[in-house]
Amino acid sequence: MSLEKPSAPSATVYAFHAGLPAFLAGPLYGQAGGLVSAASLNPNPALPTLADVTAPDGTLEHDQQQVFVLGLQDIQAGRTLAAATEAGWRFFAGNAPGKVVVGYTSQRPPNATWKLTTVTVGPGVFSSLQQSHGLNALQQVKDNLYDLRLLKIPGLNVEAFWLFPRFDAPALLVPSPAGPDQLQEALASQQTYTEPDFLGIVQTLTAKRLDYPPQYGS
User: Number of structural domains, the chain?
Assistant: First the structure.
């Protein structure tokens, strides 16, 4: 079997191509007018150029992944991953350490046009790309056919690769980053989680998060 990577609509691919040059030409996050965020403990990672992230054959985007978002209220209510909503797509560009970025596109009102909204750089991006490539080595992927999705829970700062089964197999969640780099310690002990186990953990985290005083933000 294998891990299938659904193709993004042509309009969102175009939005990534059209928007990336301006993002890479701008200042980093934290500087005046910054557009690019840094997935790194280093506050000033080097910003790659467009040439750095373009393959020799001219290819730019690769490893496209559809992004789904699950809200804290849905988790608190005990809903399954079926409650996750489509939020856009993300694309990687570049393959070498220090020369890889990931960009997120979404549809924006009032005309629901696709737009590149965020570009992230830094070692965390390269690690995420490597982790996504490693998913093919999972025994469950060798035994079953899955679609690759990315699940985000913004209120918990949680991201996970969501292996969505094509046939009668359990869904799997792979927290990203993995192991000691995972911000939520409760999701750092295993490489993969079944949907019930994953939701049980994030329900506990959500209950704690919603108990925070309002001044702690969203």
Answer: 1
